[in-house]
Amino acid sequence: MRDYNLARAVTVVLSVLFGLLFLLALAFGLWGGKSSPLTEADVIGTWHGDRGSRLDVLADGRARLSDVSGWKCSPDEKPGVFTAEGGWTLGHLPDEGSGILLRFSPGGTPAVQECTDWFLLSDTGKDGTPGDGSDVWAGFYGHEHSHREEFRRSPTG
């Protein structure tokens, strides 16, 4: 009888401890919990690509691309290198994550009126993505895999 009471007490104590740990994990966002959304502050700034490209995302909704390689504005085009200006908006591409939608007119391609592509951020820890924001990188969704360039934002302030 004594062993039965001791086993029962241990089971109750362990169940209570497990419940408390579970509630703490939920409260601190360690398990499940919803993360905060991507904001303009997460994307505004200068992003440098590992192949020499540069993307300036400005607070007024404008964007400037410099020396971007491997991008095609239409399926018939071969990937090229270009510089462009345009605009951006925050968004979320289904099944891919959060980022910004860029619309621009590339210099040197008069036949193309406007190009669009998603600039998707990774490891932000926001919108349900992994990471904690300490090592954020980004890339263009429309780049062919062999031309994919990884971007990192320059420190600000």
Output the keywords.
157 residues; alpha+beta; eight-stranded antiparallel sheet; 2 helices; 8 strands
Describe, in short, the structure shown.
The protein is α+β, with helices and mostly antiparallel strands and 157 residues long.
Question: What do these coordinates show?
Answer:
The chain starts with a helix and ends with a strand. Strand 4 and strand 5 (97-106) form a beta hairpin. By secondary structure, it is α+β, with helices and mostly antiparallel strands. It contains 2 helices and 8 strands. It has helices spanning 2-27, 40-43; strands at residues 45-49, 54-57, 62-71, 80-93, 97-106, 115-122, 137-140, 151-153. It has an 8-stranded antiparallel beta sheet.
| Main sheet attributes: strand count, strand direction, barrel closure | 8 strands, antiparallel
Mean pLDDT value: 74
| Structural category | alpha+beta
Radius of gyration: 23 Å
Overall shape: elongated
**Largest sheet, spatial ordering of strands:** 7-6-5-4-3-2-1-8
Report helical residue fraction.
Answer: 10-25%
Residues in β-strands, percent: 35-45%
State the end-to-end CA separation.
69 Å
Number of strands: 8
Low-confidence stretches: none
Topology:
Blueprint: H1 2-27, H2 40-43, E1 45-49, E2 54-57, E3 62-71, E4 80-93, E5 97-106, E6 115-122, E7 137-140, E8 151-153
Antiparallel strand pairs: 1-2, 1-8, 2-3, 3-4, 4-5, 5-6, 6-7
